[in-house]
Amino acid sequence: MGGAVSAGEDNDELIDNLKEAHYIRSELVEQAFRAIDRADYYLEEFRDNAYKDLAWRHGNIHLSAPCIYSEVMEALDLQPGLSFLNLGSGTGYLSTMVGLILGPFGVNHGVELHADVIEYAYQKLDFFIKTSDSFDKFEFCEPSFVVGNCLEITPETRQYDRVYCGAGVQKEHEDYMRNLLKVGGILVLPLEEKLTKITRTGYNTWETKKIIAVSFAPLVQPKNRDNGKSKVVPLPAMFEVRTLQDLARISIRHTLKKIINQDKAKSGGAAKSGPRFKRRRVHRRRVDSVLLTNKHVFVSRMIPNPMDDNNNCDEIEEERAEEDEDEEEREQGDLKPEPPINLLREKILSLPLPEPLKMYLLYYREK
Question: What is this structure's pTM?
Answer without folding.
Answer: 0.78
